[in-house]
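Notes from hallway chat w/ T.B., transcribed later so I don't forget. T.B. wanted the structure written out for a chain they're using in a teaching module, and asked if we could keep both sequence and structure tokens in one place. Agreed to drop them here.
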Amino acid sequence: MVNDTIDVSPLAAGAMAYVHSKSGPLHGVDIELSTMEWTYDVEGGFANAGALSEDTLYIGDYNKHIYAIDRHKGKLKWKVELGGSVVSTPVIDGDMLFCGGKDRYFYALSTQDGSVIWKQKANGMFFATPAVSEKFVFCKASDRNLYAWVRKDGTLQWKTSLESREHDNVVYHDGVIYIADNTMLYALDAVDHNRKWVRRFSANICSAPAVDDNMIYLGCSNDFCYGINRSTGEIEWTCILSAKVKARPSVIGDKVLLSCLDKNLYVVDKKSGEMGWFHTFDASMSTAAIPHKDVILVTNNNRLQVLQISGPKK
């Protein structure tokens, strides 16, 4: 479908998928027809995965811009220039768009026109994807600090220091934020960052955690994937693979999708970790598999590929 290198997980809404590389154009692809509907290019390429609302795709580039692009037609709605490259993938919440920049500022923008509602400076650059709760927005910076600001006006609620400078993404769920840091997985109270529990693993955590109502799923450098009780931090199951899972697992129904560097996409039972089925691709799986309606979207070997959630036909 796409001739350019694809090294970012796809986005999807309705009948459309959106793919790009970190140095090439953005493509809108009709999933059902397997046709390229539009292409949007910028100098230097796009720097993050982007975020979708009902009608708009928001995405940042290496030249300090955030773009709002009509997701149906590929036409520019607006773009604004910030103080640094926008490597941090934006997050949409209502009429606000949140992202961090390499200028060490974290921004809250209007989704309508890109105007800055508030911005706050940190002691490090922002590469990680933020998370948003009803009252707060959270993001880790390269100064090792995890920051929490009041959503509506940017007042600093708290910050707490972690071990590594890695660009760890934060996940918020039901009053708790979860963040992986080296070998540690933290569950912190969203209001005051008090630790609810900490889980240490025997190897570095490679993937951002995926969270649902009862469980957390992540991969480690020892080629293990774990299912962890969200309330207690106890390991409920371990799935042993033949290579690392570096992309965030995806959850669909009673299944967890694991993109593995051994070229396989594994589908396991989310309650037991038992293997359901797997599909082997041409190249290592370094981007997340995205469930969408009754299919799974995968970018591999510079192609957008579509699999049935039910698995390969026997």
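Follow-up for T.B.: The first strand starts at residue 11 and ends at 13. Might be a good example for the class.
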